[in-house]
Amino acid sequence: MSALVPGSKILGTVTHVEFDAGLCIGYCQLCEENVVDELAEAIENNVQKSASSYDNWSSDDIVLALFPEDDNWYRGKIVENGANGLLVFFVDYGNTETVNSGSIRKLPSLLKHIEPLATKCVLVDETPPNGQWTAEQEMAVKDKLLNQEFMFEIIKRSPQGFSVRMHSPSSSATSLDTLTMQTVALNSCHQCYISYTESANKFWVQLQETENDLIELMSQMTDHCLSSAEPLGSPRVGGYCIAYYSDDMAPYRSQILTSTSDKCLVQFIDYGNSESKSPGDLMKLPPKFMSFPVQGIRCCYKATKINPNKLEDKLQELMASEGGVKVKFLRRSNDEYTVEINEVEQLEGNSSMSNSQSEVQHDYPVSSLPLNQTCDVCVCYVEHPGCFYVQLLSSSDTVNDLMDLAEEEFVTSRSLSRVSPGQSCLAKMSDAGIYRGFIESTGSSISVTSVDFGFTETVDVQNLREISTKLQSIPSQCVQCTVDLTKMSFEHWSDEEINILKGFENSVPLVSMVTSSRGNVYQLDLYDTRDKDIDRYLNEELLGVKKQGKTASSYKESARRPLIIRRIQIPKPDVVVGNTEIVCVTAVHSTKQFFGQLTKVPVDKFASLQDTLTKVYEMGQDAIVDGEVGTFCCAKYTDGSWYRALITAVTGSSAEIMFIDFGDSCTVPLSSLYQIHPSIADTPQLCILCQFQKQPVNLSLGDLQSLMVDKVVEIRLLSKTGRFSLALSH
């Protein structure tokens, strides 16, 4: 689901309309139609497996409910238990209906983790002529909007929901004040400059072939700023402008990421880096400078066994390369490309990568898995939980047909005249089956990898044949997966953990959901729901065996009871001692210390995190069963919103928690704390505890709070013990 930030546009459908005084409230499915269809299919497949109905339902329980008008099952949230049945809010559509208790089922865990599809919106263009809606006007609006597709433009977020403006679905998602991104063909190689690096998962490159065009644009902008530049006026988050970079005092095309009354964080879009600016320093970006595509191409390095620190150091080093680097663009997700770089691939030690993560690239089209959607899979080959392969159950007929076609073609096809790494072929493997594959390596023996099953074997040359163009044009039928993108090598896994996953190899179908990806590798949540008595979340076992000291047999015995909680860790704040950071002061608890929220996190990423928190936890999660200090969790703050938190102290049935993205603390009942979900654990903590190097004099705590809270300040990090010692830049 796209991040809903002011200025963004997304195609969607109105599923329910309500009227509140002079407002028109619409519940809208802001997602692709196939997402709705796949959820409906998943519900249909799982409703018969879910627990039978019972009468002890409570408010806020998340359930499957039978909608009486169409006799279909939908996800819902119980609002109240009334005399005539249960009042249920259907979270994917927005309507509320009374449902008989016999038509309620427990919602399986795998369906609970999918975000609600209905987003509450204020439809700003729908207003009553006389300030109040009449029954006739309400009916006319419903007839016009319900089940119709529109292009929704996000205006702002308000207590009533997102304020949106609706356009015809044929309206362009872009406008005159929107720039296009530089695009490249997949699997193409280009000489590039690395313009800015945050990490191996986030860096920017520029095409060397457009270098002269960018230089000419910069020259024209310099002349413009010296002669006719106009002040921007009121900055708009997501809007474009011209801003000077402090290091070279040259003007650059920029986008506003965050904005307060006295500070704006802008990103220099042709390079990738960001800087804090005063609103008065920003200038309008004329249309004549907006036709040239954005030259900063955001990249993520492909899945690799290179040490992450070594990889990042190499990327930083290559930024200084005058001749640039050769980049291969492997895959695209939105505006981010997964890439490999020749100079990185030559790193010492990379040649020792396992077959599962080989540098050898095959020429078959690659299959993919949808993000944040459930699908039925078969685990077809397991090296370890950090590297295994799955096939979609829906492709089983295709796999069988491919095996038959390969066997027929093998009989008449010619032997390979020469063998080289990456070469596509047909291979007779040890089970006498004929498989589509590619040459993994040559030498004293020939290794061949099956593109439809993932395994690799040594094959005699006489058991290799040429493959036809037609058979090679069909996408590979398996995809490489992991349960943790940070643990993709063998040494992270015990025999017990490996055996748990191997127990499902080519035997028990699983339900999966992609929670993240890197290159062509997908991080999965795995569920065993083979019958109504089993609702088993395998990740808790695979990622908890060593940490909890449990054996595989103990998990089998407890498979139908609540599993051990996975100790999910949230990365520490992404800061380095010695660097300068821009922070928004969120809390001042003493005259020596304050909490600062890092502003370098893109506003759309922060908004997406908060939106995901709200949607995931309003749907319900398992409560924490213990209250150990140091456990990450999620909790509601006094404003009624959900936030990420850390347990800092426990007394009896209460816990003191700190909200890690804001710095505020409070004491809450342990029963109100919920397990952190992996989908919101990837983003590093956004707040840092800061201590003045020199305590401000003649200022009380109240003075400091009035002076600093909600203000954006620039700080220099001097040292770190339990907190950061710093100096204010100004």
Automatic annotation (TrEMBL):
Q: What's the domain of life for this entry? A: Eukaryota
Q: Where is the Tudor domain?
A: 56-114, 234-292, 418-474, 626-683
SMART domains per UniProt: TUDOR
Stretch forming the signal peptide: none
Q: Which Pfam families match?
A: TUDOR
* Protein name according to UniProt: Tudor domain-containing protein 1
Tell me the organism: Magallana gigas (Pacific oyster)
